[in-house]
Structures are given as C-alpha cells and as structure tokens.
Write a structure and sequence with these properties.
Elements: E1 30-31, H1 36-45, H2 48-55, H3 67-80, H4 95-101, H5 108-116, H6 142-164, E2 171-178, E3 181-182, E4 189-190, E5 196-198, E6 201-205, E7 210-215, H7 228-236, E8 244-249, H8 256-263, E9 275-280, H9 285-292, E10 300-304, E11 310-316, E12 333-340, E13 353-360, H10 366-374, H11 380-389, H12 401-425, H13 435-443, E14 447-452, E15 455-460, H14 464-476, H15 482-489
Helix pairs in contact: 1-3, 2-3, 2-6, 3-12, 6-12
Length: 494
C-alpha cells in the first residue's frame, strides 16, 4: 500500500515579497536625508547668516523668512539634488528636517519671489541695441554684487578653519574658465556652439577647491571679452595669509588688459606678492610660424600620452606686437608645445604633429610648466561639471537675468560648503568624491529626531562609520545648540 503526500508548492524567492504594505503614515519625525542637517550646520558654523545679514538687507519688514533662511533653504535644496525652486517640495513635510532647522523651508512661490529681488529692471535699459553692439556684459545688480561679498567672506572663513585644523594655506592658484549653460528660455542668446544659453566665467582656488568669484554672462559674450573683471574679484577674495599667488587660464585669458594687470609690478606691493601666471597662447599666424621654425634638436620630450603621442617642449623666440608688450612692460616668455604622433600614426587632420604655445612670466623648466598648466583641467573644469550637472547651476529658472545670476551664485555657494566638508572632515579617499557619492556618504542618511530628558537629538539608522563621519563634521564645524544650553542651565518641564 502506497501513501501519497501533498507538498505545498514553494514560490521562488524573487517572485514574492515577505511583507504587506501598511497604509498608515509614520508619525515620527523621520527623514530619508537627515544628513542634510550637516550642510546646515556648516552653513551656520561658518557664520553665513551674519555675512548675509550684513550684505543683503533686502527685507522691508521683519515678518516672514530672513534672507539667510531663504539662502540656506536654496543651498540645502541644491545639496539634496534639487535643480529649480519648484523642487523645494523635496524638503517639504519633513518634520525631522524642520525640527533640525528650527523652521519649515519656504514654499516655491516664496523662494521665487525672493530670487526676483535680485533682478534690477533698470539695468535692462543699459543694454545696447543688438545692431549697435552684439555682445554686452550685463552689469550685476547691487544684491547680486553683495552675494559676491558673501562668497568672498565664506572663502576666507573656510581658509581660516583650514589653518585651525593644522592645514594653513600659503599658496593660492587661481584657475579661470568660462562654461556654457544651455537654456531654451526666450531671453537666452545664441552662443558660439550654435545653441542658446548663458556663458558665465568662474574662478577657482585650486588648492582648496573653492570658487572665489564668477561673472554671469549672456551666451553670446565671448570668453575673451573682459576676463579681467572676474580675475580681480577672485584675487580680492583670497585671505591675507597667502604668500604666493598664481594664475592659470586657457586661450580666452590671452587678453591684453588681463595679462598687463597680472604682469604689472604693482602686484608685488599687494598681500601675496607678484602673480605668476601661465596662459594658453592664441596661435596667431606669426606665433604659429615661430613655433614651427624651432630646430628639431631644441624639442625636449617630457611625457607621453596613453596613445603613444609624445609631448615635447621648446623655447620660442617670439616678439608679439600686442599693446601689452610696451617698452616699459616686462617681456613675457613663450613656451612651445609639440604633440608628435609615433611613426605611421596621424591626427584626424592628416598631420603627425600639432603645435601649441604657452605665454607666461614664470621661469623654470618648460616641461614642468606645461604639466602644471595642464592641471587646470582637473580643477575649474571639474567645478563646471559638478555645478551644472549635480547642483542646480545647469538649469536657469527665469527669463530675468538677475534671477538666473543669483541662482547660479547660490549653486557656487553650495559647492563651496560641500567642498569644505570634503576637505576638512572626510577621509583621504573620500575627499575627491563627486557630489553623487557625497550625497550617499553624508546627505542621504535615514534618521529620526527625538527628545530625551529635554534634549532633542538626531539618531541615524546607519552603520557606525557613517555616524562617525557626521560626528567629525559636528566637531570641526562647532556651533552652540539648545542641547548644550539645556545641559548647562538644566531643564524644567512646563
């Protein structure tokens, strides 16, 4: 006699879910990005509210959000991944964040109204007719200029904090470059690549990865038009303790007024002394002929590309006729660069060699100078990429120039806050983290705000190393809290 047993069929693991969805909302003060409060702590610890209050008296009445609260909210919005004012809903209905900030972030309409205050419609009258002057650098309104003062004050305070942490900065290399921001706004103008948008100029302090200054521009303004303005703002933002100053730029910085100002002997009397610079030279026909006439024996190999292309340098005997080469000016040095393909390999244009040149007031071996100048690609170009693609700087929120300029400046301000955290608080292998990874390390941390013995505390649902990372931020960026005050004064229940 045989017995037949029925065995329940087992569903494959990935074809089922082991829980049911509870429709009841979680009433506790929890947040999926509780680490965003670390950015707020840095914002406040560096004294940004005071800097903003001193430079931006925009409020006409004492009720409502302060300028610092609007700017803090905009920075937090961009830090968490928001691209436009309407994304402020990402921070809405977050009781944990609201308790940690001490206020609920403003609505999108309120934030947009605040940004509108930075646009001065009277400045629109200064724009000449396009038939008279095609490219025009739109002047900054007073509030937008004040934001530059806030940015400069922030840079100096971050540099001071580096000194307090035993990393005092004595060298400042300013890397300057323009970038294109695509925009389909009707007010956006055509740029040289054929699309429409804006073309801001940005200057970065390479050693600390901090934005020093920017100049927001229409898309049709060429990068070579008046680059001196941004450079002056950048050097003015440096702290007084700097002992050596340098400048690097691409061929857009090969401009008479800028080179003359950088090379002026008056710079030696300023804090930080003379400015050593290296700029990619515009390959005019005369310069191109001079580089190609260099004797073969004078070319010196100093490196090789991954594809086998040799990098060679040589001194170039060239005397230009530009205005900055006056009798009373210091002569500038031209260093030639030759990119030489291996035998049998050609560039796309059919040649086996390309020529470039560097204009500089620096002495030293040419190969090292070219390599030093090439490092610019890893600083300011990296900043452009992060600001446009990971922060809100790549999406313009308005038809109004002043609003877009302000939104871009707030993206740069956020970039500096994040850079300060990475440079002062993260481990060596984390300091070069892009913003996408930084959010996973610091911002997108699940947490809950609770109260214990009259002390409100943030508790994270994370591994110990993640909590230790935030503890380092709390230590480096010191700030008084209600919790410390409660411990000192005692707490009485109402």
């Amino acid at each position: 006699m045989s017995i037949c047993l029925r065995v329940a069929a087992r569903l494959p693991l990935l074809c089922k879910t082991p829980f049911v969805l509870d429709p009841r909302p979680l009433d506790e003060a929890t947040s999926a990005h509780a680490g965003l409060l670390a950015v707020s702590r840095v914002f406040r610890s560096l004294g940004l509210p005071g800097l903003i209050e001193a430079n931006l008296p925009l409020r006409k009445r004492r009720s409502g959000f302060s300028e610092a609260q609007f700017i803090e909210s905009a920075c937090l919005l961009q830090a968490v991944g928001g691209e436009c004012p309407e994304d402020i809903h990402l921070l809405a209905a977050d009781d944990c964040l609201e308790r940690g900030l001490g206020y609920a972030p403003p609505k999108a309409t309120a934030l947009r109204t605040f940004l509108e205050r930075f646009h001065d419609s009277q400045l629109e009258k200064l724009r000449p007719d396009r038939q008279v002057q095609k490219s025009f650098i739109f002047p900054s309104s007073q509030p937008v200029s004040a934001l530059q003062e806030v940015q400069a004050g922030l840079v100096r305070r971050i540099a001071r904090l580096y000194g307090q942490q035993g990393q005092e900065q004595r060298i400042a290399t300013v890397d300057q470059d323009a970038t294109i921001i695509e925009s389909h706004k009707q007010a956006a103008l055509f740029h040289y690549e054929g699309g429409r948008g804006y073309q801001p100029m940005v200057a970065v302090w390479a050693e600390l990865d901090l934005v020093l200054a920017d100049e927001f521009r229409d898309g049709n303004v060429p990068a070579k038009q008046e680059p001196l303005t941004c450079a002056k703002l950048a050097f003015a933002a440096l702290p007084e303790g700097i002992k050596a100053r340098y400048f690097r730029g691409d061929s857009a910085c090969h401009e008479n007024d800028l080179l003359q100002w950088l090379n002026d002997s008056e710079r030696e009397k300023e804090p930080g002394g003379r400015i050593g610079f290296a700029v990619s030279a515009v390959m005019s026909e005369a310069l191109s002929q001079s580089v190609q006439q260099v004797q073969e024996a004078d070319w010196k190999t100093f490196g090789q590309e991954d594809d086998g292309t040799w990098r060679q340098w040589a001194e170039v005997d060239f005397v230009p006729g530009e205005a900055y080469e006056r009798k009373d000016s210091r002569p500038l040095r031209y260093v030639g660069l030759r990119l030489l393909k291996p035998q049998g390999v050609l560039f796309a244009d059919g040649s086996d060699r390309h020529f470039h040149a560097l204009i500089t007031n620096q002495p030293g071996e040419g190969g090292r100078l070219l390599e030093w100048h090439r490092e610019k690609a890893g600083t300011v170009e990296h900043t452009h990429d992060e600001v446009k693609n990971e922060l809100g700087g790549g999406r313009m929120p308005s038809q109004r120039f002043g609003v877009n300029s302000t939104w871009f400046k707030l993206a740069l301000l956020t970039y500096n806050l994040v850079s300060a955290i990475k440079g002062l608080c993260l481990e060596e292998d984390e300091r070069t983290a892009r913003l996408k990874r930084f959010r996973l390390l610091v911002i997108h941390l699940a947490g809950r705000m609770n109260r214990n013995n009259c002390v409100m505390g943030l508790r994270l649902c994370q591994k110990p190393e993640a909590i230790q990372r935030l503890q380092k931020i709390w230590t480096v960026f010191a700030l008084p809290t209600h919790a410390t005050a409660a411990k000192a004064l005692g707490c009485r229940s109402g």
